[in-house]
Amino acid sequence: MIIESASTRGMRHCETTALGVLLRHEGLDLSEPMLFGLGSGLAFVYWDGKGMDFPFLGGRVKPFQLTRNLDGRLGLGLAVRETASPRKAWQDVRAQLDAGKPVGLQLDSYHLDYFGSKVHFGGHVVAMYGYDDDRAYLVDTDQQGGAVTTSLSSLAKARAERGPMTARNRSFTITASSELAPSRDLVVGAIHACAVDFLNPPIANLGYRGIEKAAGRVEKWLERTDNPQRDLPLAALLMEKAGTGGALFRNLYRDFLGECVHLIDDSRLRTGHTMYGEAATMWTEVAKLIAGAGDTGDSTDLKQAGELLRDLSRVEHDAMRALAEVGT
Questions:
Q1: 65-74 and 184-199 helices cross at what angle (nearest 10)?
Q2: Residues in domain DUF4872 (predicted)?
């Protein structure tokens, strides 16, 4: 059973890719930056917990929060199903597909046949638009191939995996009106909510404070690993290539603000857009410096990355202060 009318266009980030598939099926076609921005998706986290092989730099809100934010803002009619039973989980998905409705799935990408990088990530999101006796038909990011397939057995394992960021066989569908549009009030609300969260982090690992904290920690990353040639280039790769759209999601947010400039005449919005353009360039340079330090073992690159991160903390703080005032 395949939904022939489903759009199978992959984009840069997994959750916005899945949302795009589901929304286009409902007649609502928004750009990926607009989906990301209306979902108040931008954030920052520096995480180095017990049992972690190497620290993690994250640039977005936690998995599925973007979808919930978008639903709350647009009133999408989001229906979420979770269950501990693999049998019930498959029945839930098959029923929606048989009714002609694509389904979003949160799962662990490690088990998917087409994934070249076998790393556990329980916050991955795909759209499913069909199945046959052996395989599931999915839409993933451009980087992973867009329209792809995986065995039904691998899909079941991916959905049932337990661990960090996983959900209990989570599936979701969306009901929306093609008449929905990103109005001025919706855009302002999304920008404001994102800015307030970024400027008021509950702990020092998050928001602009997290970037400042990362500055000091990154400088010592050569001491944090016994395999810098592996861990530092991988950290840089995750910042640039792992579904972030580049620059740790800052490219996506810059482009969202660029679209908003055409909807709202506000000098503070233009300031925020310009500053996030600068931030995006700086994040890409940070990634290059981290990768270079891993290749050479030279701490000079990490010191430069730390200096850039301190500048980034100030740039993003000031950008979000301007954005928090948009529309007031």
A1: 140
A2: 154-323
